[in-house]
Each structure stands twice: as C-alpha cells, then as structure tokens.
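Mods, move this if it's the wrong board.
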Amino acid sequence: MRTEPGSLEVGYHVNRKPSPPLVLASGSPRRRDLLGRLGVPFQVAISDVSETADPALTPQEQAVALARRKARAVAHRLDSGLVLGADTIVVLDGDLLGKPRDDSDAARMLRALSGHEHRVITGIALIDASSGEEHSSSVSTLVRFRALSDEEIAAYVTSGEPCDKAGAYAIQGLGADMVAGFAGCFTNVVGLPLCETARVLKETGLSVATPAPVCRLPDGSPCPRLV
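Not the wrong board. Structure tokens:
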C-alpha cells in the first residue's frame, strides 16, 4: 500500500489502536519488514525531509542526525506516540556513498567498492511526540567486497536493485553475491539494526514480543553483537 508524503499508513501487521503507538518514519519497505520482526504494532509515516548530510559531522553523527531529522518531522505532526527514524550510510575511505543518482552513479559506486572494505552505519532515533524525549544510537558493520568485473557491475545495475540503496547494493538481494564477507550486524546493512532497535524500544517500555535474539545472520545464527 502506498501513501503520499506526510500521510499515515496502517501496515498489514498493525493493530489499528496500538498502545502505546509506534510510528516508523520511513517509506522503506526493508525497514518496515525488519521492524515487523520485533512483534511490536506500528504505523508508517513518510517523513519527506532532506537527506543532505552535514560534512562537519563524523559519519556516525551524520547517520544519527539524519535519523533524528526524519523522526522529528513526523513527531511534530503528532500529539502523542513514539516515532522511530533511521538512516543508513556507506563509508569508503572516508567518503560517504548515499543512494545513486542514476545507473551511471551506481556503476561508479560499485567500481569503487570492488575489492575493498567499507563501513555501513545506521543511525536510529526514537522520539516521544508528546514530551520530545529522544533516544538515539548508531551501529556500524564492516563489509568486504570481492573484485568485480565490469560485466558483473553492468549486469547488476541493469537489474535495477541498486537504484534506491545506499552504496548502490542490497546485501539481502542479488548484491549478496558481491560480498566476500562482513563483520557485525547483518540487519544493520539491510537498513535497520534489530539488535539495537529492540534495545532502544525496550528502554522506553515497549514490549518486544519476538524471543531473543531478535537479530540474526542469514544462516539463522545470532547477530555477533548479541553473543
């Protein structure tokens, strides 16, 4: 189900009167699916804010600042409830790689990532709309790409998968074939670190229904941050 910017959407796994209500300030289907794994009823609102980062901040600070900006934009429209914002950035040799502008930009990013390690950082921010109280955090995962041929890059770009992904790849999709290895939280690279999100939600008193560990690797083993 699609919504216009600024609207609220009740998800397919949402109770219509959650108590206390949780709102995900993101239109990302990946974050929506990940958050749904925690068993917490939530609604979705699209923040529709600028994702321009402040170069004066560290990558971790930038990710948190963008997550906070998204959460605040939605919280300001509400009288009550908890609003969760998140933002994921890719850092390669100190340079930030956001979402590619077009296919050419996606190919450029993939050539830069080929054969190198990079860091994926997701900032999360949880804001109480009624009190303004904030909880924020960030998680970092190290990812290593194997060497990619020009043909492989061209084929991946043609698939369309890179178009709305930070760093122009999806580790949970076709992009998994380009990843030689990673160290840290897998769901963080997908777009929402469930280990950290569950911790922050619990701090505010929300009950995370899914049995621990809520965050796992693709093979089903617990997230390295939880063991």
